[in-house]
Each structure stands twice: as structure tokens, then as C-alpha cells.
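Bumping with the actual sequence this time:
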Amino acid sequence: MRGNRAFVGLLLLPALFFLIVFYVYPTVFNLQNSLTDLSLFGLRRGGRWVGLRNYVDTVWLTLISVSVRIVLGLLLALLVNSDTLRRWRLATLFHVILIVPWATPPIVAVVIWRWMLDPRAGVVNKLLMVSGLVPEPVAFLSDVTFVWPSLITIITWNTLPLVTLTFLASLKAIPSEVLEAASVDGASKLRSVWHVVLPHLMPAVVVMTLMSTFWTFNNFVYVWLTTGAGPGLYTNVMATEVYLKAFVDGRMGYSSALGIVMAAIMTAFGLLYLRFVVRRELREAF
């Protein structure tokens, strides 16, 4: 028995080593730096004070993009699962259409959308001008009027399929007897969706809302590669602020402190996930 435990411990040593080197040590080092005024260049460069704007922008981006994904995901899942699409045998086509954005890496998705939204060569501007909707090209990624909607569109396009497919799987799991009973009782399609389907989908909605919030709040790739936190610092969120303070301003201590704040907020989301999802699964299991 002891020999088996020693053998298992030996097998776990490589994983434990990488965990300590790439997770525990950076976390402790970051926590230590957050309590200092460490500067990458030895001098603290003064930055323009923006107060809580980075926090507000992060919360705004998270709230809007997650809400859009959840609502569109529900609508698309209901559409794909509808009798009409199955009768026309279009459900498989919609599955394929959903998988393509999901299978696209975020970096590739950003490159594609940057080209599509380009003022000079972008297909979006060409279509808008040909249709007469705009008299001149629109700078989607450098105009403060359009940059946030454009950013949310890119994030939604790349991440919506996962939300939709999750809801679709939950729809498939609803017992047909329940829907048939609602129909026999005289419930319309809309009432069946509201009183039968949505309650069954709520666990999946809670899970995807929490997970999407977690992913978006911690998002760096989409914002940085799409706008570089610009124009100016108009789309600067907490994740990009951590990078800018560390590697542009050289204020490692300040950047580490921001990272600790982000980690604390994401830990809170993790606790919410455990509270609403894992505990519920444990109750159902036992």
C-alpha cells in the first residue's frame, strides 16, 4: 500500500514541479510586487490619472457582451431546435455554421475582423457604401462611436457558438413527455417555452453566464489585438491596463496590484460558480 502511494507520488512530481514553477511562484512573486513600488526601469513614470474608468470599462464590456451572448445563444438554440428547421433538414447546416466561428482561434478571428472592418479594404465598408447606407468609409476601430460595438461584435462572433451549443444540448435533454403534457394542457408554443423550456435551461444559463463573465473579465487578447486599448485609451480595460503599467510605464508594483485585484474579483466569480453549480450537482447526486 505504501509502495503504491510512493509510486503515485512519484508520478505526480513532474506535474507538481510545473505547477509550482508556472503558477505558485508567479502568484507569490506578483503578490510581493503588489506591495512595492517596483519599477521596470528604476524610475516611476507618471501616468495620467483615470480613476475608476478602467474598472467601469471592464464591467461595461463584460455586462454588455455577456448579455448579448446569453440572449442570442438562447434564441439561436431555440431556432436550431425548432420543428421548422428539422422539417426542412436545416438543423445540420446551422450546426456547421455555428462550429466554424467556434473553431477559429481568437487571434485568427481578430485578424479576419480587422480586415473586414478596415476603412479602405474592408468588405463591410464596401457593402455599406455600395448600398448607400454611408457616404464615406467608417473607421470602426478608431472612431469612439463604433469601437465598442465593433469589439463586442468580434467577441460575440467568436464565443457565441459555445453558448448556443451548450443551450442546444440542454434543450435536447428536456424529456419529450414534459413538452407533450404541456401541449395536451393547451399551452401555446410561447407558453411552453416560457413555463417549461426556460426553467429546464436555467442551470445551463447560470453556468454559461458565470463562465462567460469570467472569460470576458479576464480578456486581453481580443481588446489588445483589435484596438491596442485605443483609440487613445478609450477601450483600455483592466487586463490591458495591467500590461501597459508593467511593460510600457514600467510600474511593476502598480501592475501587480491590479493583477491581484483582478484575481480577487475572478475568485469571487469562481465562488459563485461553486455556490450555484457544483453544490446543486452534489445535491442531485446524493
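The C-alpha cells above came from a reply further down the thread. The mean pLDDT is 81.
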